[in-house]
Amino acid sequence: MAQYRRKKNKDLTKKIAEERIVILLALAEDNFKTHPDRTKRYVGLARTISMRSRVRLTRDQKRRICKHCYSWLVPGNNCRIRLKGSTVLTACHVCGKMSYYPYYERPDAEKETEGQKELKRNTEAEIKVETKTGIEAEIKAGIEAKTEIETETEN
Ligand SMILES: [Zn+2]
């Protein structure tokens, strides 16, 4: 019984920790412009909670935090992101250090060649034209039928 309760509490702790991390990082984002001095504190608290409760930061969360100085990074504002070969380079303007993240090309199955894209575009355009003419023909037929009915009633 005691064991069960402990497990249940552990899950709950993790859930609460996740929520708090999300809230703190949202606060960091909100206060970045108005109170930039607060962001480091929010990030610090989020990290502390993450470590203490052993909840990992998600990939997106991790990449918005400088690995070296724990600043909240806003691309185009206090960090520069560039792609080089198969790595993402993030340069932090607060501490001037770089972070490297690997990135991979999508598997071949998902990749579309330029020729396939062109074909897809053409077929899509054709379908559009077809549907348009189809609708026009329908409207025309409708008008014709209507006029026919009208002429019939007149007679
Ligand atoms: Zn930094």
Count the DSSP helices: 4
The dominant shape is elongated
Low-confidence stretches: none
Quick one: how many beta strands? 3
The distinct bound ligands, ions and cofactors come out as: zinc ion
For this structure, the CATH topology of the largest domain is Single alpha-helices involved in coiled-coils or other helix-helix interfaces
| Known CATH architecture of the largest domain | Up-down Bundle
CATH class category of the largest domain = Mainly Alpha
Strand content: 5-15%
The chain-level structural class is mainly alpha
Question: What this model shows, in words?
Answer:
The chain is mainly alpha-helical and 155 residues long. The chain folds into two domains: 72 residues, Immunoglobulin FC, subunit C (Single alpha-helices involved in coiled-coils or other helix-helix interfaces); 48 residues. 62% of the residues lie in helices and 11% in strands. A three-stranded antiparallel beta sheet has the order 1-2-3, with no helix packed on it. Strand 1 and strand 2 form a beta hairpin. Helix 1 runs antiparallel to helix 2. The longest helix has 41 residues. The N and C termini lie far apart (91 Å). 10% of the residues are buried. The model has no long low-confidence stretch (mean pLDDT 82). Bound molecules: zinc ion. The site of zinc ion has 8 residues, from loops. Keywords: Cytoplasm, Endonuclease, Hydrolase, Metal-binding, Nuclease, tRNA processing, Zinc. Consists of a catalytic RNA component and at least 4-5 protein subunits.
